[in-house]
UniProtKB/TrEMBL annotation:
Cofactor(s) listed: FAD
Main location, first listed in the record: secreted
Pfam family, one: BBE
Keyword Secreted annotated: yes
Protein name: (rape) hypothetical protein
Provenance organism: Brassica napus
Lineage start: Eukaryota, Viridiplantae, Streptophyta, Embryophyta, Tracheophyta
All residue ranges annotated as the FAD-binding PCMH-type domain in the record: 79-255
Length: 543
């Protein structure tokens, strides 16, 4: 069958897959083409039962694998396009072969590590069907080298597994990455990766020493081979654009044996004039770098809110008590609020586990308190405190929707000292806090989806005067297709992307486009918000 005919048939069949119908057999020939091509491009065996999943082979296995790490359930509903088949490489050369074969056979593909993409971009293609899924979840090896202060970690591992493997070997080493321990290393680091050690050590991406990537030609490149431009781009430029990262070499950071945590909850009645929250906004980014003090806004059943102030300090209780007494007595902490923990216990607590849980819970994503949900998220960065009347309106808006969720985290500390152009992640000096909005539900129907989507967009509009502007900034790891999306083969993608690109990356977007154009001129690695390659007509003038 010719390539275009094959793709036509594949496309037709993908439509069937999207409704979870068992497809006629002709699509198996496309899988066979892929398998034959893989055989030609790797010497390492790949048992089909463990590596290839399609509705024709076994519809329930296919469904199970597809949904296994898909965190946002909005993207596995029946109406969502589904991959024609899923390939799970068990060896690095299989990833190389998958890239070569997708390219040769003209299959659009998606790459998934931990599956936590907010818009499901790692396993759903809205802009281009048919497509296949390359799922890296079997490539999850971690080697921690305490002597060298580093670890090599494959993309399919979760950040919880990395934390566990570090803690297994040391009580005084950690790694600065996100709070939710089921997030995948692959997609997390490539978009930045912030967590409770952010003010002391920066992002996960700020602590990368080396990486191994498969490029659009299927070549395996380490830092030296990929060059400093590409190595720059993958430390914050977002997933699915520059190649498939197989593994990262990360720098471990020192942590004390004893950390101190606290949670203080305030109702609106306890802070009617928003004095405490206003003070938090003024000081949280200026406190000692060892202290990370965030605020979670929770809608209580009776249409009111509670504000949870959650602190984590790299040091003992006595020192933190002094800091809080001096800088934030309004929070009213008592002796009993302070809890001393080890770093790995703080990891458990931040992920929602009791601190006395066996550490092995970090190895099994099914045990995570972060259950899969239907959600839509958005983000903002603020450079100035939101005034009290703005906060009051924000509270009013939050309680309108009982699935709403919101938090603010402070920046400052080392984040303000790292130059904006050091990595693609440009939210550095001047950023006082990051805001995360979401609507989260364990069930969904069309009506509630519309209502919730409307709510979060209104919330975002409401916040406009109080957050960054020109451009209004956003965090690429909280993908938000409301900001704009590429469409298939559109020459206008490059123009449109300048808007959302500046929101995610400020001036770094232009450098990302140049690097993308150089390393992947054909735009092989693409999705709804991948960095576009420059159209051919623009290339000469811009180089
Ligand atoms: C519940 C939850 C909690 C979160 N908490 C935090 C947090 O505390 N801090 C924070 O910074 N972020 C957080 N995030 C956001 C998270 O960092 C991003 O969604 C991240 O992209 C997820 O990585 P992943 O591998 O799990 O995702 P995936 O869905 O697998 O991938 C995300 C994107 O990266 C691409 N990609 C995946 N693997 C690779 C690879 N190996 N090479 C190249 N591209 C790849 C995908 O194609 C996709 O475009 C959270 C997300 C969720 C859902």
């Amino acid at each position: 069958m010719g390539k275009s005919k094959a793709l036509y048939a594949f496309s037709f069949l993908a439509l069937y897959f999207s409704f979870c119908t068992i497809t006629p057999t002709s699509s198996t020939s496309l899988q066979d083409d892929f398998i034959n091509c893989l055989h030609e491009n790797t010497n390492v065996d790949f048992p089909l039962l463990e590596t290839l999943f399609s509705p024709e082979r076994n519809v329930s296995d296919y469904k199970e694998v597809l949904e296994s790490t898909a965190h946002n359930l909005r993207y596995v509903t029946e109406s969502m396009p589904k991959p024609g088949f899923i390939f799970k490489p068990v060896h690095e050369s299989h990833v190389q072969a998958s890239v070569i074969c997708s390219n040769q056979l003209g299959f659009h593909h998606r790459v998934r590590s931990g599956g936590h993409d907010y818009e499901g971009l790692s396993f759903v293609s809205l802009m281009e069907t048919p497509f296949i899924l390359i799922d890296l979840s079997k490539l999850r090896q971690i080697n921690v080298d305490i002597e060298d202060n580093s670890a090599w970690v494959q993309s399919g591992a979760t950040i919880g597994e990395l934390y566990y493997r570090i803690a297994e070997k040391s009580k005084i080493n950690g790694f600065p990455a996100g709070l939710c321990t089921t997030v995948g290393i692959g997609g997390h680091i490539i978009g930045g990766g912030d967590g409770t050690l952010l003010r002391k050590y920066g992002l996960a991406a700020d602590n990368v020493l080396d990486a191994v990537i498969v490029n659009a030609d299927g070549k395996l490149l380490n830092r030296a081979a990929m060059g400093e431009d590409l190595f720059w781009a993958i430390r914050g430029g977002g997933g699915g654009t520059f190649g498939v990262i197989l593994a990262w070499k990360v720098k471990l950071v020192p942590v004390p044996e004893t950390l101190t945590m606290f949670t203080v909850t305030k109702t609106l009645e306890q802070d009617p004039e928003t004095k405490i929250l206003s003070k938090w906004q003024r000081i949280a980014d200026k406190l000692v770098e060892e202290l990370f003090l965030r605020v979670m806004f929770r809608v209580a059943g009776d249409k009111t809110l509670t504000l949870e102030y959650k602190g984590q300090f790299l040091g003992e209780k006595g020192t933190l008590m002094e800091v809080m007494k001096k800088y934030f007595p309004e929070l009213g902490l008592t002796q009993e609020d302070y809890i001393e923990v080890s770093w790995i216990e703080s990891v458990l607590a931040n992920a929602g586990f009791p601190t006395d849980s066996p550490l092995e819970v970090l190895l099994d994503p099914k045990l995570s308190p972060y259950v899969k949900v239907y959600f839509k998220g958005k983000s903002d960065f603020a450079t100035e405190p939101i005034p009290p009347f703005g906060l009051k309106g924000m509270f009013k808006k939050l309680v309108e929707e009982n699935t709403s969720s919101m938090f603010m985290i402070p920046y400052g500390g080392i984040m303000a000292k790292i130059p904006e152009s050091e990595t693609p992640f440009a939210h550095r000096k001047g950023t006082i806090l990051k805001i995360h909005y979401a609507t989260i539900s364990t069930s969904e129907d069309g009506i509630s989806l519309n209502k919730r989507t409307k709510w979060i967009r209104e919330m975002y509009t409401y916040m406009t005067p109080y957050v960054s502007s020109n451009p209004r900034l956003a965090y690429v790891n909280y993908r938000d297709l409301d900001l704009g999306a590429n469409t298939k083969d559109s020459k206008a993608n490059f123009i449109k992307a300048q808007t959302w690109g500046a929101q995610y990356f400020k001036n770094n977007f232009n450098r990302l486009v140049k690097i993308k154009t150089k390393v992947d001129p054909e735009n092989f690695f693409r999705h709804e918000q991948s960095i576009p390659s420059l159209p051919f007509s623009k290339r000469l003038s811009s180089w």
